[in-house]
Amino acid sequence: MNIRETMGRMLRQHDDKDAQAAPDALTLIKSDHEEAKALFARFLDSSTPSAQRRSALTQVLDALTIHTNMEEQIFYPALRKAGGSEEKKSVLEAVEEHASAKDLIAKIRALPPRDETLTAKVTVLKELIEHHVEEEESQVFSEARRVLGNKLEALGAEMQRFKDRAKRGENNARTKTTTGKSSDTVAPRTTSRGKTSAKKRTATTAKKRTAATARGRKKTRR
């Protein structure tokens, strides 16, 4: 067994152990909500040292990104598949709320460290998340208990594995969208116009070099 296979086996064993100890889906989601609440409070507390505020902000943005992707890729599809029209409606609304939060997260990440709108944007994000949590822990949790029932435990194990892989940076779990496509930056394609321009520049350079060589030979002959 080579090193890669050994490492893969160790990681699978690690995931299996985590799955055995994983909470059910709703407990895991609620735990994530409480973590985000605590991190928001730490950042928005004016008495928190600057370094700790920056750390709290990074942590909450990363945690929310992983959490929303985890729900959109695992929890919501399971709920929608097992449920009916009401569950479908709840999922669609939750995904729209996620989209608003993700847009704001992207804006916050793009801000300079001392931007005067930073605290305001984080406060608005906190309020968006609080509204989402309130609806999710009441209506969505109730629907999940009714239509998923004893499947919530296995679902929780799958969600825990997703989180663990995301924290290790595996499978693009932090950046995948609900369609499963990665949102990582891709190098722009070279257009046909760009290729033509490049060829022209190359040809021009070659002509200049040829002309310079010819002039050099004439001088030598003289």
Characteristic terms for this protein:
0% strand; globular; 222 residues
**Could you tell me how far the N terminus lies from the C terminus, measured between alpha carbons in angstroms?**
73 Å
Number of strands: 0
Gross morphology is globular
Order of helices and strands: HHHHHHH
Q: Overall pLDDT, averaged?
A: 81
Q: Provide the structure class.
A: mainly alpha
What does this molecule look like?
This protein folds into two domains: 165 residues, no CATH class; 33 residues. The protein is 79% helix and 0% strand. It contains seven helices and no strands. Helix 3 runs antiparallel to helix 4, helix 3 packs antiparallel against helix 6 and helix 4 runs antiparallel to helix 5.
Task: Write a concise synopsis of the structure shown.
With 222 residues, the protein is mainly α.
What does the secondary structure layout of this molecule look like, with pairings?
Blueprint: H1 3-21, H2 25-44, H3 50-82, H4 85-110, H5 118-147, H6 151-167, H7 192-221
